[in-house]
Design a protein that fits this description.
With about 90 residues, the protein is mostly helical. It has a single domain, classed as BH2638-like (Annexin V, domain 1, Orthogonal Bundle), CATH 1.10.220. Helix content is about 65%, strand content about 5%. It is built from four helices and two strands; from the N terminus they run H-E-H-H-H-E. It has a two-stranded antiparallel ribbon. Helix 1 packs antiparallel against helix 2. The longest helix has 19 residues. The radius of gyration is 12 Å and the shape is globular. Pfam families: UPF0223. InterPro entries: BH2638-like_sf (IPR023324), UPF0223 (IPR007920).
Length: about 90
């Protein structure tokens, strides 16, 4: 499906691409599954762009409203699994 991902107009083109990649991985986790290592790399880059916990929550809430997918649950599950596991929600 095509969703409108939340972005900040102050981000650079590279940052927008990285944030969209992160949200696409969250979406893929629900639909097909992703490797934990790939998800964590995308999440760490996302946190470099969005270091504020409150901004992260706000963006994730917008994403959840658009897609029905909850990034928090995906990341929490990823942190609880071994490194080579496939994560699927």
């Amino acid at each position: 499906m095509n969703y409108s991902y939340p972005i900040n107009e102050a981000w650079t083109t590279k940052e927008i691409i990285d944030v969209v990649n992160y949200y696409a991985m969250i979406e893929k986790t629900y639909e097909k599954g992703v490797l934990k290592q790939d998800l964590i790399v995308a999440y760490n880059r996302y946190k470099e762009i969005v270091p504020s916990k409150s901004e992260e929550k706000q963006l994730d809430k917008q994403f959840e409203k658009q897609t029905g997918y909850v990034p928090y649950h995906v990341i929490k599950k990823a942190k609880d699994l071994d490194l080579k596991n496939l994560i699927k929600m």
